[in-house]
Amino acid sequence: MNMAMFSSIVQALESLAKRNKFHEKVMLGILTILGLSGVILLSLAFFMEGTQRVVMLVGGGLLVVMTFLPYTQIQNLRKQTMSIDMIASVIDQLQDEVASETLSTLVTELLEYSLRR
Questions:
Q1: What is the C-alpha separation between 28 and 32, in angstroms, rounded?
Q2: Which of 6, 18, 33, 101 is the most buried (most CB within 10 A)?
Q3: How many CB atoms lie within 10 A of CB 20?
Q4: Do 98 and 3 touch, CB atoms closer than 8 A?
Q5: Half-sphere exposure of 31 toward its Cβ, with a 13 Å CA cutoff?
Q6: Region of residue 50 (left: phi > 0; alpha: psi -120 to 50; beta: else)
Q7: pLDDT digit string, tens, across residues 33-90
Q8: Dihedral sign from CA coordinates of 37, 43, 44, 50
Q9: Distance of alpha carbon 80 from its chain centroid, rounded?
Q10: DSSP secondary structure letters along 5-74
Q11: Nearest Cα residue to 77 out of 11, 8, 9, 31
């Protein structure tokens, strides 16, 4: 593999990790809004009576429960981002090793050429 290929793979992985982090933040923002709305509905339900109270309790409860369900998706995004970061660091290390091997080969060839002259 050449250096350009390593660099392009690392750039693609880093952009994927950034996209995962952005999606995680968006999901957390939406879930926070839903959770707060549910808590507000639950707190307002205690000032209501009859059918309105039941509707607000059910609606608030559903909103609060809905905030906990996508939590697994957020955990999966975090795991993906962590594994992508690990793969990118391994590729960076491979790129460094290839660069040092190429450099040592070039230095050896230059030394051999200078000794011949």
A1: 6
A2: 6
A3: 19
A4: yes
A5: 16
A6: left
A7: 988 999 999 999 888 888 999 999 999 999 888 888 888 888 888 888 888 888 888 8
A8: positive
A9: 6
A10: HHHHHHHHHHHHHHHHHHHHHHHHHHHHHHHHHHHHHHHHHTT--THHHHHHHHHHHHHHHHHHTTHHHH
A11: 31
